[in-house]
């Protein structure tokens, strides 16, 4: 496949119902239920703390980013490209744009451990090429709901010096609303 130029990619709010419906489909198809925040909670922006951004190729929505802004880093909760548009450099371009937009803040995200699947290994490799470092291999994402299991993931950041313990506590408290250790 041909690599799409970064200049053709934009990150912007999703404003039309049509784009929101496409974004929802991309999101629900990409993540297993244990890794999905309910879509209505994304749309409500979790009391204004969560940002939903569309990744656009021209006028076409081809992915989404959900993120939380903290004092010391930007946390990307979900990042997904439409499966029909993958392997064209869109995801790498979107992350590069996001890095410039949030600079000088580092980016923190959760990722499936590379040993789980070839896709997970490729994803970790792509993030590493984009300047991310694995900072915690023992991280556990709390469940989004009581009937869902916790998920073992890795934390990666563009700043290798972020404290994984402090970041984990902040994510658990604010993003996942877990008040007990």
The CATH architecture assignment turns out to be 3-Layer(aba) Sandwich
CATH topology: Aminopeptidase
Q: How far do the termini sit from each other?
A: 46 Å
CATH level-four homologous superfamily name: Gcn5-related N-acetyltransferase (GNAT)
| Number of H/I helices | 6
**Biggest sheet strand line-up:** 1-2-3-4-5-9-6
Number of domains: 1
What is the highest CATH level, the class?
A: Alpha Beta
Q: Give the beta-strand count.
A: 9
- The structural class is alpha+beta
Mean pLDDT score? 93
Percentage of residues in helical conformation = 25-40%
Unreliable runs? none
Estimate what percentage of residues fall within beta strands: 25-35%
Largest sheet: 7 strands, mixed
Shape, principal axes of CA atoms: globular
Q: What is the element string, with H for helices and E for strands?
A: EHHHEEEHEHEEEEH
Features:
Aminopeptidase; 9 strands; 6 helices; 33% helix; 181 residues; alpha+beta; seven-stranded mixed β-sheet
How would you describe the overall organization of this protein?
The chain has helices spanning 17-30, 39-43, 45-48, 90-102, 118-129, 164-175; strands at 9-13, 50-57, 60-69, 74-81, 107-111, 133-136, 140-141, 151-152, 154-157. It is globular. It has six helices and nine strands. The protein is α+β, with helices and mostly antiparallel strands. It has a single domain (6-175), classed as Gcn5-related N-acetyltransferase (GNAT) (Aminopeptidase, 3-Layer(aba) Sandwich), CATH 3.40.630.30. Strand 2 (50-57) and strand 3 form a beta hairpin. Helices cover 33% and strands 27% of the residues. The longest helix is centred in the first third of the chain and has 14 residues, at 17-30. The protein starts with 8 loop residues before the first strand and ends in a 6-residue tail after the last helix. The chain has a seven-stranded mixed beta sheet with strand order 1-2-3-4-5-9-6, sandwiched between helices. A two-stranded antiparallel sheet has the order 7-8. The mean pLDDT is 93.
